[in-house]
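Quick one, tokens below:
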């Protein structure tokens, strides 16, 4: 039987106790806003000027603004999405905004993943 550390002591556990639910590896994919801006510019999705503005928190790339404006959200919801995209210190792969941006650019999941994995 396998052993695990519990309360400072090694204890035996069954294989069934070690089974954990499958966690989507994308949950762990996170970049800083600056890293994500660089990744999207390097991939040719935005210009260098857009990357600098986004990384600095001064403006969103045009495709991000267009994607947000195309949603069915209210004006307040769209504003909240823009503020989050502009000010969040980190960008999560699983964030709804990333799914929206990927759809706007006709990107596959693998292409989006590549932005987060280099």
């Amino acid at each position: 039987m396998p052993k695990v550390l519990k309360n400072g002591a090694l204890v035996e556990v069954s294989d069934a106790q070690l089974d954990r639910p499958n966690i989507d590896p994308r949950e762990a994919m996170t970049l800083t806003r600056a890293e994500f801006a660089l990744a999207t510019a390097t991939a040719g999705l935005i210009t260098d000027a857009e990357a600098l503005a986004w990384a600095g928190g001064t403006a969103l790339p045009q495709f991000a603004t267009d994607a947000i404006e195309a949603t069915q959200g209210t004006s307040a919801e769209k504003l909240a999405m823009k503020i989050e995209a502009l000010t969040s210190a980190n960008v999560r792969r699983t964030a709804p905004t990333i799914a929206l941006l990927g759809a706007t650019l006709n990107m596959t999941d693998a292409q989006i993943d590549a932005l987060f994995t280099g």
